[in-house]
Amino acid sequence: MSRLNQNNFLHLKRIVGDSDVYYAKRGASVFFLNQLQDERWLNIRDIGRAEAYYALNKWNEAQIIKLYHLDSLVWGNDVLDGADKKGVHVFQSLLNSNLFALFGEDLVVEDPATAEFIDLTWSSQNFVD
Question: Pick from 110, 88, 118: which is nearest to 28 by CA?
Answer without folding.
Answer: 88
